[in-house]
Amino acid sequence: MFLGLPNSGKSSFIGAFWHVVETGEIDAHYKVTTQPSDREYLNALRASFLNCQAPERTKTDFVKNIELSILDKTSKEEIELVFPDLSGETFSSQFAYRKITDDYIDQIQNCNGIMLFINPDFVKKANLIADSFLMFGSEELSNNVEESASSLVPWDVKMSQTQVVIVDVLQMIFKYITKPCKISIVVSAWDLIKNMPLAENIQTPAEWLSRELPLLKQYLDANNASFKYNVFGVSAQGGSYKEDENDIISKLQELVKQSERICVQHESEITNDITIPIKWLING
Ligand SMILES: Nc1nc2c(ncn2[C@@H]2O[C@H](COP(=O)(O)OP(=O)(O)OP(=O)(O)O)[C@@H](O)[C@H]2O)c(=O)[nH]1
Ligand SMILES: [Mg+2]
After folding, report:
1. Which of 9, 70, 224, 225 has a CA between 20 and 30 Å from the CA of residue 33?
2. Residue 162: which H helix or E strand, with range?
3. Which residues contact 248 (CB under 8 A, 6 or more apart)?
4. How confident is the model at residue 178, as a pLDDT?
5. Nearest to 6 by CA among 84, 103, 93
6. Distances from the Cα of 187 to the Cα of 120, 156, 177, 235, 257, angstroms
7. How many domains would you assign to the chain?
8. Which protein residues have their CB within 5 A of the ion that is ligand 2?
9. Which residue of 2, 3, 5, 7 sits with most ligand 1 atoms within 8 Å of its CB, as the best mutation to test the pocket?
10. What mean pLDDT is reported for the chain?
C-alpha cells in the first residue's frame, strides 16, 4: 500500500520506479519481465519524470490500480506488486472526517507492506508555544497581546501538523491489518535535505525523521513489536524542477541514463536504485 498526504511524492516515485525497472538502465534489484497490460498511467508518470515536470496532482475520485510483475534479479523470484496510486486527499480526509470506505478497508486487510511517503517541502511542523503567532496565521511576532488576540483565526483541522495526521491515519488502519506488515518510510525530495548547509547536521534519513517528526518516530518505536520500519531518503527527480532553477533541469536531462539522476539514501549509503525501499519491504 502506498500511503502519503497530498504532495508527498507517491506519483513521482512510481514514475521513476517504472522507468528503472522497465529500462534496466542501472543495476537495480528488480526488473520487469512481463509488460503489464495497462501501461498508460505508468507511461504518463514516466513521461513527467523524463520531461522534468511534476506529475499532475492525483484526483480524489481517480483510483488507478497498479499491477506489476517484477523479477528479483538475485533470487530469480517473480513478485506481484499490486497497489493503487491514491490521491493524498484520501488520507487527509480520513483524518478530517473520521471515515473510511469499505474498499479501503479491503485494501488494508490484503496489505502486506506499507510505503509511507513524506515530503519535507510540504511538512507542517510542530509549533513551539513561542511560535504560536505563526501557527495562528500571523507572520509577525508581537509583544502586544491585545493586538495579537484580534488577529487570531479559529482552529481548523487543516492546520494540524503532518506528524499528527500521519500517526492518526496509521492508528486508524492498524486495527484492520491482518498480515504481518512492515513500513518503509520514504522521505521524498531528499535532494532538498542533502543540499541544506552542513550546519543543519542531518546526515541520514533516520536522523531527519527523528528531528523533524519526533511524534511519528516515537509512535513507530513504541509499536516496533507489531511492525518493523526503516527510513529511506529518496530523490525521485534528482533535483528541484522549480522555474528559477532551470539550469538544474538541463543538467538532469543531460544524463544519458536518466535513472542515474535518482538518489536513494539508507543510513550513510547512497545509490541510484529506487527499488531499495520496496526490496526491504519484501524481504529485508
Ligand atoms: N525537489 C524534489 N521535489 C520532488 C521530488 N519528488 C516529488 N517532488 C515534488 O513534490 C510534489 C508532489 O509530488 P507528487 O509525486 O505529485 O506527490 P503525490 O504524493 O502523488 O501527491 P498527490 O497526488 O497530491 O497525493 C511535486 O511538486 C513534485 O515536483 C524530488 O525528488 N525532489
Ligand atoms: Mg499523486
Report:
1. 9
2. helix 162-174
3. 239, 240, 241
4. 84
5. 93
6. 7, 26, 23, 8, 23
7. 2
8. 10-11, 58
9. 7
10. 90
